[in-house]
Amino acid sequence: MCTTEDKIIDAAIVLFSQKGYTAVTTKEIAKEAGVSEMTLFRHFENKHNLFERAFDRFVFTPKFIALFENLEWNLERDLFNICSSYQDVLRKNQKIILMHLKNDEFNPQFEKMLSKFPNEFKNLLSSYFEEMRNRGVIVENPETLAVSFLATNFGLFFTSLVMSKLTFNTDLQTCISNYVKIFTKGISLQK
């Protein structure tokens, strides 16, 4: 059952993704949620608190910590699983990402929240690549590999988001599989 807070958060995410954070008013959010503006303020006090709660709900870091705790230490299989999970999180959070892209103002607090997940994910990836280097599987700089892997994955997500509107028919899992094979072959000592 959807609570009043759920309705408000869902309405806020929809409007933020359509118009951007700064362009949306609490009055619009309340109307979209089917509640009074006073109800919105009782639950969240202000728009910024509402955004923080919405962001916390949609960005899910514990899933990735568990993923990294259960790795096989097989470079290609691990990167395929990591990439697939990352693409899944990006797709589930595309409204938050679109909202960020539509936000015209730079807000340091806002930017800090939005960069929390990618930074944590980069650290997990760096640690993984460091361990793979210690195991003699790769020699490259772990942080550089992590940034490259994240950047390419975000590019894949963004391309599929944009291209899906242009009837892009390539299967995402095929793209992930091919990308991971190429990336793995490029960094692996066992070529």
TrEMBL record:
SUPFAM superfamilies per the UniProt record, alphabetical: Homeodomain-like, Tetracyclin repressor-like, C-terminal domain
Annotated ranges, domain HTH tetR-type: 2-62
Keyword DNA-binding included in the entry's annotation: yes
Regions recorded as binding DNA: 25-44
Record carries keyword Transmembrane helix: no
Pfam families with a match to the protein in the record: TetR_N
Gene3D superfamilies: Homeodomain-like (1.10.10.60), Tetracycline Repressor, domain 2 (1.10.357.10)
Keywords: DNA-binding
GO molecular function: DNA binding
Domain of life: Bacteria
The protein, known as: Transcriptional regulator
Coiled-coil ranges per UniProt: none
